[in-house]
Structures are given as C-alpha cells and as structure tokens.
Amino acid sequence: MLNENLNLTNLRNGFNVTKELPIINYKDEIINNLLENNVVIIYGETGSGKTTQIPKYLFELELGGDKLIGVTQPRRIAAINIAKRVAVETSCAIGKEIGYEVRFNKKSCGSTKVKYLTDGILLNNCINDRRLSEYGIIMVDEAHERALYSDVLLGLLKEIISHNNGLKLIITSATMDVIKFSKYFFDAPIIYIEGRLFDVEVIYKPLVFIDYVESAAYTVIEIHSNPEKGDILVFLACQEEIENCIEKIGRMNKLKILPLYSAMEYHEQQKVFEPAENDERKVILATTIAETSLTIDGIRFIVDCGYSRQSNFNPTTGIDNWGGCSNIKSSS
Known about the structure:
Elements: H1 4-12, H2 27-36, E1 39-44, H3 50-60, E2 68-73, H4 76-89, E3 98-102, E4 105-107, E5 114-118, H5 119-128, E6 135-140, H6 148-162, E7 168-173, H7 178-184, E8 190-193, H8 212-224, E9 231-235, H9 239-249, E10 255-260, H10 266-269, E11 281-286, E12 299-304, E13 307-314, E14 319-326
Parallel strand pairs: 1-7, 1-8, 2-5, 2-6, 3-5, 6-7, 9-11, 9-12, 10-11
Antiparallel strand pairs: 3-4, 13-14
Helix pairs in contact: 1-4, 3-4, 5-6, 8-9
C-alpha cells in the first residue's frame, strides 16, 4: 500500500484554489435551506466545488451534531480520494474526523464526523439499520448516475425521511433532472450553482480505422508526436479495450501509459495522480471511472470514443447484463 502521509503531503500542494470556487457564494443559502427542510436538491455544475465543500461546511458548522455526515460516491476511487482531499482542507487526519468506507477498505473510527462511502456500502448499512440511526445528514452525490444500488437507496431514503426521524438529505449532481427529483422528494427546494469551466476546443475526428480502439491509439500517437505539452486522458468502454489500446500504442519515447478501471488494486489506481518524471507525458486509458468526481492534474488532451459499458437489470432472469452502448449527451 502507498504511504498515506506521503499522499496527503502531495495533495496539499494543489489545494490553494478553494476560495475561487463558485459554491462559496452559496454557502449561506445551502445551510439555511437545509435547516428549514429535510431534503435539498443542488444542481451544481462541473467545477462548482459541491463534492468537497458542502461536506466541509456541514462539518465545520457541526450540523451533524453527534451523528455521522455520510457522503456517497458511485465509485470507490472517488470516495477515497475526495475524503483525503477534504481531510487536508480541514487539517484533519484521514481516518479520524474525516474517513471513508468502500469495499475491502475502511478508514474511520468512533470520532469520525464525515464519512465518504459508496452507494453499496450505505445500502448495506440501511439493510442492517433501516432508519440509518447513526447518520444525521446524508449527501448523495452524482445522483444522475442511475444504477440499481442508487435507485433502491434513494427509495429507502425517501421512506426514512417520510417518518420524520430527523435525518437530513442533500442530493447533488451536475446533470440530473432536478424537477423530477424535487417532486419525488416532497417538492424539495432546488439550488442552482454555476460551475467553473475552462475553454475547451472540441475536435470531431473521423475514424482512421474501423475499430475505434485502434483509432484512439492512433490519436494518442498523433498527439504525442506534437511538441505541445500536456497529459492525455482516453475514455474507453472496458478493461479489455484498455489492454488492447495499450498494445496498439506500444512503447514510445517519453510516454508513460497508465490504465485506470475499477477492477484494479487501489495502489495501482493511485499511480494516475502521480506526476510524470523526466519530461515524460502521461496517457491515462480509463473507463467511466474517471468521468466524475476525480481531478487529475496535468490533463491537456482528452480522447473520448463515445462508448461505454453499462449494466442493465433483467427482471426476467434477475441478473445484471453488461453491454456496450453509445454515451448519452450528459456523460460526454
């Protein structure tokens, strides 16, 4: 495993932009709405700072009281790295006041006030304690990422809140249909927060080869041949395509190829956050695991093939089926 203190030290160097986040101007509005309502819907655009700053506000104002503030993330790598970031910003030791819990990995204790966890972990907590009595506030982040776990969890949270047991719920996303979510959760108030975006030049390249994975590899080689500096992030559908793309790119001078997908060991996933050495350029080949709630410094070029694999529940067989499909606009 990587040295936790070393990771936190590296993280500190990149957190001098908190005061520039758009969410700063909405702090009072968010807190007041939460005090007056059991459910608050927040439409926070990309770069608004909602994922890190809202839990920090709740922690600093002690709004959770003597209970936990739970923050769900759809992916393990996001839950762990965001928890580390918030720990740094609040000057807390990871695993103490700020903690996380994902499958096979837990860092929290009796004094933990904010816990980042996956949807599946919170759902499991709900099965063991139907009223989630150890939680005072729950924030469901990236609510647009609909999956079986998250949908069941939202239904259970609505049932818990309808019994007026004091639990507060915050639902956030950058692309969800806030009107539908608001109506589902008792006409909850909606807060809109603008994001902080950068100028992006979009180039639609025709497929050089029939196989889009091969075309992605060709595009990476083409970019690396250009003297313009900056790392590359490539979105592919699955682990098999990533391994295939690595093979097609081959060995290139001063090009460091890093895969990123959910089945990897955590310490292997962490390598994508480490800066390249000796004037190397990083190229990260990732599934949708890198699509939301992750910030990888140094990325200048993004190659998106427009495909992903999604799990669809088959009610007839009672199992999930994985299949390839084109990405919807909100995921692009």
